[in-house]
Design goal:
Elements: H1 3-13, H2 16-23, H3 26-34, E1 42-45, E2 49-52, E3 57-60, H4 63-66, H5 74-85, H6 98-110, E4 117-121, H7 124-139, E5 143-147, H8 156-159, H9 165-170, E6 178-180, H10 185-195, E7 199-204, E8 207-208, E9 213-214, H11 217-230, E10 233-237, E11 261-264, H12 266-269, E12 276-280, H13 282-288, H14 306-321, H15 325-341, E13 348-355, E14 358-365, H16 371-379, H17 383-396, E15 398-399, E16 410-412, H18 420-439, H19 442-456
Parallel strand pairs: 3-15, 5-6, 5-7, 7-10, 10-11
Antiparallel strand pairs: 1-2, 2-3, 4-12, 8-9, 11-12, 13-14, 14-16
Helix pairs in contact: 2-3, 3-19, 5-14, 6-14, 7-13, 10-11, 15-18, 16-19, 17-18, 17-19
Length: about 450
């Protein structure tokens, strides 16, 4: 099969959006339409840009929902190619995985002694599921503590600790987990006081990517103390924040608190192959695997396949080659904050959440005459940011996203090594578009909102 030739024939004879809507998910096509992306087909790329079939280049600040930590890097693609060309067979199952052992060693070394054991998965949600199973196995308890608007994946187990109760109710998994406000130490203490004998663990995103809320060091210390006192496990979801995205190898390191388990995925993949892992401390492992029969309930067919392990090794090797990447990420955050938070005299004020290069940016108009925008901001929080995303794409060829269509903000999760001047290009474009939207007539704002509503309804 000549795959490129087959793709070219398909593009010449089909409308991708029409086929996708008809055969896969028409609501996703509606969503892309609202962002101005439904008819755009990307056929090429460089490290930090996407190229459509007309040759237009777009700055990519989505980076595969944060999976392309080194951009769409050739060295990661090369690792995948080398893995496919190995004579050594993959997925033998009844054999130790050589590449799995190599990547496990590399991960434990990268974690600098905080963790001892690694269990590989096929992605973030599966990592969450395995971490939840471990917490139940270790403690013999059924309940978890999670946090409002937290996100840990969309499998049934992960939905059970989803911080959106509305989504839990869709699938009947609401109730067992205790959903608390982040950084509310009193609420967490009270939950353990009332339910301590039922709580298996606390699962927290150090940065809640949907909202930009950051778990404070004081709160993490309280969570650690409560888990220790009540025999529960502290689990940090580092799926989006791990591997340097917040300016340290792992985000929990900002607090000085070491959890019992961390879940990882996105950054380990290089944006090429689905892969995840659960890193645990030795005392957790010993309680989880206290008999040989347990290996039957902690398994996955594809978890140590050659391509996944090879790209994971390539990603971790890149940190050794670029030891200054953590400083680069911290400087990138400072640049965005400096350019957006110091906008005296601007018709728009900006609120920035998150840490490092997992950021949320809210734009609030100071112009009172645009009553339509003020009303829409209040009633439908993500409509105006959706229009902002569409204009950034259409007018400036910059791809950003909404943080899972939650909250009045846009999400910025680019490659870690994105040049600072590209971030400067983004902040300039954002100020331009947000300023225009703030001062436009009520009539134009209303037309845009109506068009957006028609696209998704």
């Amino acid at each position: 099969m000549n795959l490129q030739a087959r793709i070219d024939r398909f593009l010449a004879t089909h409308q991708v959006a029409e086929v996708y809507a008809r055969r896969v998910n028409h609501f996703y096509t509606k969503y892309l339409t609202s962002l101005g992306l439904a008819d755009v087909v990307f056929t090429d790329h460089d490290t930090h840009h996407l190229v459509d079939r007309d040759g237009n280049r777009y700055l990519d600040l989505v980076a595969g929902y944060g999976a392309c930590y080194w951009g769409r890097a050739e060295f990661v693609r090369d690792a995948a190619r080398q893995a496919l060309e190995l004579r050594m067979p993959s997925l033998v199952q009844f054999s130790h995985s050589v590449l799995g052992a190599m990547l496990a060693e590399a991960l434990v070394s990268y974690a600098a002694g905080d963790f001892d054991r690694v269990f590989f998965t096929n992605g973030g949600a599966e990592s969450t599921d395995y971490a939840l199973k471990m917490a139940r196995m270790v403690t013999g308890r059924p309940r978890m503590v999670c946090f409002t608007m937290g996100y840990h994946g969309l499998t049934l187990g992960a939905l059970g600790v989803n911080g959106s109760v509305k989504h839990q109710k869709m699938f009947g998994v609401d109730g067992p987990a205790l959903v608390l406000p982040l950084n509310d130490a009193e609420a967490l203490t009270d939950a353990f006081r009332r339910h301590g004998r039922e709580i298996a663990g606390v699962i927290v995103e150090p940065v809640i990517a949907r909202t930009g809320d950051v778990a404070s060091a004081d709160f993490m210390r309280v969570a650690r103390a409560l888990c220790d006192r009540h025999g529960a496990l502290l689990i940090c979801d580092e799926i989006k924040t791990g591997f340097g995205r917040t300016g340290k190898p792992f985000c929990y390191q900002w607090s000085g608190v070491v959890p019992d388990i961390i879940t990882v995925a996105k950054g380990l993949s290089g944006g090429v192959s689905a892969v995840g892992a659960v890193l645990s401390r030795e005392h957790v492992y010993r309680k989880v695997f206290d008999s040989i029969e347990k290996i039957a309930v902690y398994s996955s067919t594809f978890k140590e396949n050659h391509v996944a392990m090879a790209v994971g090794l390539a990603v971790l090797d890149a940190f050794d080659r670029h030891p200054g990447i953590y400083d680069h990420v911290q400087a990138a955050e400072s640049l965005v904050r400096q350019q957006l938070e110091t906008t005296a005299g601007s018709p728009v004020s900006y609120t920035i959440g998150g840490r490092g290069l997992v950021l949320t940016i809210g734009a609030s108009s100071a112009v009172r005459s645009n009553v339509v925008r003020a009303l829409v901001d209040k009633v439908e929080g993500d409509a105006i940011p959706g229009i902002l995303c569409r204009r950034l794409f259409a007018e400036h060829r910059i791809l950003v996203s909404l943080p899972n269509r939650f909250g009045a903000s846009v999400a910025v999760i680019p490659a870690l090594d994105l040049p600072h001047e590209e971030l400067g290009r983004f902040t300039t474009a954002l100020r331009t578009v947000a300023g225009e939207m703030a001062t436009e007539s009520n009539w134009r704002t209303l037309r845009e909102v109506v068009a957006d509503a028609r696209a998704v309804l």
